[in-house]
Amino acid sequence: MNKSDCIVIIPTYNEKENIEKIIRAVFGLEKCFHVLIIDDGSPDGTAQIVKRLMAEEFADRLFLVERSGKLGLGTAYIAGFKWSLEHEYEYIFEMDADFSHDPNDLPRLYAACHDEGNDVAVGSRYVSGVNVVNWPMGRVLMSYFASKYVRLITGIKVRDTTAGFVCYKRRVLKTIELDKIRFKGYAFQIEMKYTAYKIGFKVFEVPVIFVNRREGTSKMSGGIFSEAFFGVMRLRWDGWFRKYPKIVDE
Questions:
Q1: Nearest to 100 by CA among 135, 49, 129
Q2: Rounded Cα–Cα distance for residues 90 and 5 (Å)
Q3: What is the reported pLDDT for 232?
Q4: HEC sequence for the chain
């Protein structure tokens, strides 16, 4: 039995080129991580690949939640967070399926929370310069200045506010009122970090190198950036008036 205190949540939609490779890469690490795939009805057979791996090799450490369609990145992670809390994991990770996040960095995020006393560890592209590979310059600039904009408006100290490579301690997700998280795209990542920050959790950035996907199709859209731009102003407004929950200690 491969027991673990960690679960890596990977949302998928049409990731058949990457899914088996990313699962095997996580399971090839020295530290034991479990993996939870949240698949939004991929017509390319992504879920079938996961089911095969579960049946043939990884029944005790690979798990799958299938949803009926594309319901948004944020709702996928919320579903994964709730599943992970129900199954008593202590460290809960977000990670992309396309190798833009290096699985070899998972132990570094884990150490930042488990060993160094942080509540949230963010795999950051911008905490030590701009560490992005194979992105068009326009997209790099948009992402970089989006994070600067978020810091300016909200006052949060995190440099990579839109990062999707994150480790949360269990108590963070138990304290955050997950059903009140409203955004689905980039703004979801911002909202989670901002909420953790406002509650009083210790958020730490771990420098990572982000590599643009080599296989499969990006799910990025202009609407995601629009949601983030206007969502930040809404978050700041809420930050003035919302009563945030107190930290849950277990």
A1: 135
A2: 5
A3: 72
A4: CCCCCEEEEEEECCCCCCHHHHHHHHHCCCCCCEEEEEECCCCCCHHHHHHHHHHHCCCCCEEEEECCCCCCHHHHHHHHHHHHHHCCCCEEEECCCCCCCCHHHHHHHHHHHHCCCCCEEEEECCCCCCCEECCCHHHHHHHHHHHHHHHHHHCCCCCCCCCCCEEEEHHHHHHCCHHHCCCCCHHHHHHHHHHHHHHCCCEEEEECCEECCCCCCCCCCHHHHHHHHHHHHHHHHHHHHCCCCCCCCC
Q: Name the residue among 55, 57, 71 with its Cα closest to residue 26.
A: 57
Burial class for 70, CB neighbours closer than 10 Å (0-12, 13-18, 19+):
middle
Query: 171: burial class by Cβ within 10 Å (0-12, 13-18, 19+)?
Result: middle
Cut 0.70: pTM above it: yes
Q: How far apart are the first and last CA of the chain?
A: 26
Tally of CA atoms within 13 A in the half-sphere of 157 that contains its CB: 8
Going by pLDDT thresholds of 50, 70 and 90, the confidence category of residue 216 is very low
* Contact (CB, 8 A) for 194 and 238: no
Kindly report, residue by residue over 105-142, the tens digit of the pLDDT.
999 999 999 999 999 999 999 888 777 777 677 777 77
120-124 and 166-169 beta bridge pairing:
antiparallel
Helix axis angle, 137-154 to 222-241, nearest 10°:
10
